[in-house]
Every structure is written in structure tokens, then in C-alpha cells.
Q: What sequence folds into this?
């Protein structure tokens, strides 16, 4: 019963969805103020989700069954990561063998779900978005894995998140070293790409391919994708906090660290134009030409 509560309520689905939607509101509000606009009220993201739930679900002609299945695959994986990260923060001893590798695999599934859904829609613009998303995954996963390897080495080969947290409580946060700082900055940019935010929003690109991977989605499936993206906005900063800022994860310090990372995400998003997919690949794989 407790396990079911962990996954469905706290720290799983309900908690992570609420925090993610509120974080999305902060993003929209700050972005609006930077553009001299008022911005939406705090409940706007919740209202948008409920509005989509009431809309008709339109399935394009020629779409395969994975078109409707893929949104739920992404949501389930994001909720699983949110629930387990929360459990490990509350009680590091609850972590299981090589859970870090499991979390890394699960964090890829929301992007793969987008690719599967877009590829199943039989829409050429969605196919372009899916192609870009595939290239983007290849671009950011390699440096992200190198970042995780750095953390594992600094944690004396630990592949359990609980052990990584205990190591930081004993020896200090991983970010407070040269290799830790460089790995953190790399992880920050990879997080921006994994969240699909500027300058890496190439797979949706509303002004160019009209939403790309999401162009054919409506109603409940679109709401599920947007909810998954909101949960990822909660999950990814928490994941970076666990890897690099894990010395003190009391509620006050955890909230403060999360807000700092959220501000960094918003600043990067609002101060950089969208890159072309080839520019994103060059940026994430090697030093770009100036």
C-alpha cells in the first residue's frame, strides 16, 4: 500500500505533476515579464490540462496503434523516476543496486515516446520533428553519460543513488571541485536539451514545423504529453541536485537549489535563439566555430 501511495501521490505522480506545472507557470511568468507582458495566473497550466481533457481526441488517418500508446509510456517512465528520486532523497538506504543506470534509461523514454508517436502519425511535419528528436537524443546523451561517469568516479565507483548521496554528505557536494563544476555545467546544458527548451527546441519549433512531434495530437494524448513535460521539468533539476548538490537535502535547501536551477533554465531559454539541428549537434559534441 505504501509503495502504491509513493508512486501515485507522494513523491510520485500527483506531487511531481503539481510541482512541474507550477514550475512551468514560473517559467511562463518570468518569460512574460522579461518581454514586458503580464503573464498568466498561477493556475493557467492546470486549466490548460483540464481543457485538453475535455477536447475530442482526433486520430489521423493512417496512424498506427502506437500513436495513442506512446504518450502513456513517456508519462509512466517520468513518474517512476520522480517517485524513486523522491524516495532516495528521503531515505538513501532504500536505493537498489545500479539504480543510477535504471534512472538514466528511464529518462530517455519520454523522448523516445515522442519519436514513436510522431512517427506513427503519418504526418510529414511530425516525421521531421521525430528525425530532429532522434538526432538531439544522440547529441545530448553522450555528454550526459560522461557527466554521470564523472560522478560515479568521484563517488568511488558507486552506481547506487543512495551511496552517491551518502558520499556527498560525508565528503561534500560533487560540484565543489574542478571536474565537478565542469560536469555540472555540461549537465545543465544537457538538461536544457532533454527538456526541449530553447536553444534546443528543434523537434517542436512551432514557427517552423508547427509543433513538429506534437502536431497531430489533441485532447487526452496531448494533455499526457504536456503533463510528462511538466514532470520532467521537476525531475531533471532534482536529478542534477542529487548528482552534484547532495550534501544537504533538507526541505528548505532542496527547494532553494531547485529554484536556482529553475532560474538558470529560464535564463538560458530567454537569452538564446533556437539552434538549427546541425548547430545543436556541433555544440553538444564539440567546440562550435565562432
A:
Amino acid at each position: 500500500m505504501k509503495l502504491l501511495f509513493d508512486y501515485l501521490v507522494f513523491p510520485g505522480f500527483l506531487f511531481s505533476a503539481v510541482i512541474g506545472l507550477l514550475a512551468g507557470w514560473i517559467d511562463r511568468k518570468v518569460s512574460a515579464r522579461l518581454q514586458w507582458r503580464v503573464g498568466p495566473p498561477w493556475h493557467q497550466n492546470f486549466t490548460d490540462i483540464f481543457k485538453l481533457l475535455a477536447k475530442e481526441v482526433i486520430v489521423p488517418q493512417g496512424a498506427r496503434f502506437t500513436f495513442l500508446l506512446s504518450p502513456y509510456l513517456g508519462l509512466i517512465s517520468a513518474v517512476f523516476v520522480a517517485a524513486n528520486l523522491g524516495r532516495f532523497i528521503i531515505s538513501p538506504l532504500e536505493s537498489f543496486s545500479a539504480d543510477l543506470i535504471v534512472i538514466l534509461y528511464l529518462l530517455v523514454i519520454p523522448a523516445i515516446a515522442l519519436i514513436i508517436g510522431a512517427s506513427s502519425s503519418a504526418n510529414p511535419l511530425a516525421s521531421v520533428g521525430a528525425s530532429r528528436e532522434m538526432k538531439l537524443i544522440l547529441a545530448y546523451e553522450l555528454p550526459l553519460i560522461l557527466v554521470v561517469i564523472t560522478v560515479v568516479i568521484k563517488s568511488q565507483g558507486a552506481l547506487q543513488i543512495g551511496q552517491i548521496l551518502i558520499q556527498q554528505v560525508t565528503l561534500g557536494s560533487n560540484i565543489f571541485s574542478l571536474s565537478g563544476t565542469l560536469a555540472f555545467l555540461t549537465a545543465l546544458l544537457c538538461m536544457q536539451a532533454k527538456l526541449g527548451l530553447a536553444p534546443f527546441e528543434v523537434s517542436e519549433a512551432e514557427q517552423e514545423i508547427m509543433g513538429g512531434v506534437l502536431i497531430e495530437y489533441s485532447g487526452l494524448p496531448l494533455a499526457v504529453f504536456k503533463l510528462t513535460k511538466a514532470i520532467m521539468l521537476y525531475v531533471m533539476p532534482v536529478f542534477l541536485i542529487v548528482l552534484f548538490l547532495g550534501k544537504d537535502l533538507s526541505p528548505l535547501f532542496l527547494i532553494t537549489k531547485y529554484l536556482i536551477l529553475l532560474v538558470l533554465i529560464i535564463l538560458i531559454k530567454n537569452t538564446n535563439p533556437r539552434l538549427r539541428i546541425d548547430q545543436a549537434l556541433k555544440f553538444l559534441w564539440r567546440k562550435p566555430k565562432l
Observations:
- Residues 2-285 form one domain.
- The first helix runs from residue 2 to 8.
- The two ends are 56 Å apart (CA to CA).
- The chain has one domain: 2-285.
